[in-house]
Amino acid sequence: MTVLFWGLMIFGLSFLLHFIIWKIHIPQKQTKALLEVFFSSLIVCTAILLISSFNYSRVRSISPAGFREYFHLYIFFISLMLAYIVNYSALEVDSPTLTMVISIANKGKNGLDKQELLVLMSDGLLVKPRIDDLVSSNMIYLEEGKYKLTRNGSLFAHIFIFYRKLLNLPKGG
User: Whole-prediction pTM value?
Assistant: First the structure.
């Protein structure tokens, strides 16, 4: 129960800190910033817990007991953090399906004209922002009119290629 309590508390604090920082200024490299915020929160909170548990018996009774519980706390927190970051990246840029559904919903009972939908679903709205994100995240770069993978981009791509092969999924998106 201690691991669950402190894991959720530290995650909640990290989320609140993330929310405040994003309200002030949205970082250019959001995934990196999220990792920094969440890992920093985990380390600072762990240090506070350890120091407090040595100095105050009341804190000692509710803090994780020993290395094993702290290890479980870290595993639990990192799992929550990674799940959040993966979902956050999906919310960062509108998905094609979400864009279509919201556009149709905004038109109400009259519906959205087919031609309007085709214009709405252009490469400028869907593809360009994703390419810009990949460039700003140092996953790809433009050289002589061609996009090429960086070292990080290659590693990222190979992880997904391996995973798709592992699941015996067909090539493609």
Answer: 0.63
